[in-house]
Structures are given as C-alpha cells and as structure tokens.
Amino acid sequence: MALEKEIKDILAWMGMLVLAMQRTEEIVDLVLTFVFQGKEKLTLEVLERLEREARARTLGRLMKQMRDRVGIYPNRTKLSPRAT
Asked: Are 27 and 2 contained in the same domain?
C-alpha cells in the first residue's frame, strides 16, 4: 500500500515537471518572438506570419519524427489521404 502511494506521488511530480517544462518552453518562445524579433517592426501581420512559421516548423518536426520512428516513406509526408 505504501509503495502504491509512493508511485502515485512520483507520477504526480513527473506530471507537474512536464507541465513546468512546457510552460518554460512557451515563455522562451514568447521571448524569442517579442524580444529577439530582429529589425522589422512587430505588426499584426508579422505576428501572424511568425505564428504560421512556428506551426509549420512544429508540423515539420512531427512528420520527421513519424518518418524516423514509424518508417513512413519520404513520398508519403503530405497531410492528405491522397498523398503520393
């Protein structure tokens, strides 16, 4: 019984650590977007472009991981049921 509680406590701490790491990643991304933005002025259009680029990087990393781990053929990387 005591071992079960210890295991639950460890899993709870691991979950909290994962959440803290995710939050830290979000903050670093926010800092990189607003503080180290480069020479162009930060407008709504620039923010929307940065968001699209970040999303594309995320999807690209996901597809690469899927190819590496699951063995998807390189010509099957489009997000479409008709990918050839």
From this structure: yes
